[in-house]
Design brief:
2 domains, alpha+beta, binds magnesium ion, 367 residues, 9 helices, OB fold (Dihydrolipoamide Acetyltransferase, E2P), binds adenosine-5'-triphosphate, Rossmann fold
């Protein structure tokens, strides 16, 4: 059986002039794992991928592939397939020939090349397009061909930097699942960088979040969604957040009762940092974790300031005591908002963190 690579990144720092692109990053990617790297622009995602690939040398630290330090192994000897946002195909070769090019160059016999190519083509459902030239394909199919070619090279580790970045939303949604199936069916290890946190949530076994050159959380999509380690992550996964100031009233196990003076209410929040009674804290409430009640009883009541319609949900801006909360309201029979209408709220999930030194706004900024 072919060994699927395990990647270990150990204390990697990369400095460009006075920019610290990566700051002491350590990471372990298991055999056959599909890992997505997400983070704001400039957080070091591409730099990390290039260092693993051997395209860029780290300032400090090492990369191990299957336990072997590969710092002095050049890119083309690392057995890695790379797919980038810009689709690179041979324009004068048909789809099939593009895919069979790497194994042919490696000197495999024609029969083996043919069977490798056919298997990959079947797996990524490119069957009907194999006799076309790249410019006769949609961008989605072009990128599929590029992925198929990376896989055909025999690489056991596939690194992808925003592979869906140049595709329209519908093609990207479809391709990401095909891509994951292909990687899993062939038992490969993949690292996939994306700007799109929804893409990461839906395809990754584990997600790595980078910010300012540092790994700030690693976990399964569910672990990260339900246990965001800081306010920034609570916002980044989902894109929107109500970040509020509160005061700790009571601690009950893993939860605390928090007074949110600006709203005039107390809420129960999951404790994410060490906090003490009486302390000022930062509270994260996701827009989907605030419910509007069908009938207003005059408790925890807000007034609709504005709203946006998204088909299957409304985004409502509700003024509670002069603090505006952003709320996602799924489509319901009784709910058709009008400005000025009053609703009671129920906060069903919240997280409490130490109050950030830099203030709430900066703590959740993308920079
Ligand atoms: N060759 C280089 N020379 C100088 N600075 C660089 C170089 N490559 C990257 N940087 C800097 O390192 C930091 C990290 O860049 P990187 O491209 O890894 O970020 P990224 O997370 O991939 O961002 P994006 O989402 O925009 O692609 C940035 O501040 C960037 O300007
Ligand atoms: Mg990048």
């Amino acid at each position: 059986m072919i060994k699927i690579p395990e990647i270990e990144v150990q204390n990697i720092t990369k400095i460009y002039g006075n920019i610290v692109a990566l700051n002491n990053v350590s990471l372990r990617i298991r055999d056959g794992e599909y890992v997505c790297i997400i983070g704001p622009s400039g957080s070091g995602k591409s730099t990390l991928l290039k260092i693993i690939a051997g395209i860029v040398k780290p300032t400090k630290g090492s990369v191990y592939i299957d336990g072997i330090d590969v710092n002095n192994v050049p890119f083309d000897e690392r057995g890695i397939g790379v797919v980038l946002q810009d689709i690179l195909l041979f324009p004068n070769m048909k789809v099939r020939d593009n895919i069979s090019y790497p194994p042919l160059v490696k000197g495999l016999d024609y029969k083996t090349v043919n069977s490798i190519t056919s298997e990959i083509i079947r797996n990524i459902s490119l069957t009907v397009l194999t006799e076309r030239f790249p410019d006769e394909l949609s961008r989605g199919s072009q990128q599929k061909t590029a992925i198929a070619r990376a896989v055909a090279s025999g690489a056991r580790l596939i690194l992808m930097d925003e592979p869906m970045g140049s595709l329209d939303t519908r093609s990207a949604r479809q391709l990401r699942h095909e891509l994951r199936s292909l990687i899993k069916d062939l038992g490969l290890t993949a690292i996939h960088i994306t700007h799109n946190q929804e893409e990461a949530m839906s395809v990754a076994d584990r997600i790595v979040i980078l910010r300012n050159g540092k790994v700030i959380q690693v976990g399964t999509p569910q672990e990260i969604y339900f246990n965001p380690r800081n306010l920034f992550i609570a916002r980044f996964i989902g894109g929107e957040l109500n970040a509020l100031e509160g005061k700790v009233k009571e601690i009950i196990g893993n939860y605390a009762i928090i007074e949110i003076e600006s709203l005039g209410i107390n809420i129960k929040a999951k404790i994410m940092d060490k906090i003490n009674i009486g302390e000022k804290v930062g509270i994260a409430v996701r827009p989907e974790d605030i419910l509007l009640k069908e009938k207003s009883s005059g408790i925890n009541t807000g007034i609709i300031k504005s709203y946006k319609y998204y088909g299957f949900y409304y985004e409502v801006f509700l003024d509670v005591n002069n603090t505006v909360l952003q709320i996602k309201v799924p489509r319901k029979r009784w709910f058709s908002p009008t400005i000025g209408e009053k609703f009671d709220i129920d906060i069903i999930r919240a997280y409490v963190y130490k109050y950030p030194e830099e203030g709430l706004e900066k703590a959740i900024a993308y920079e």
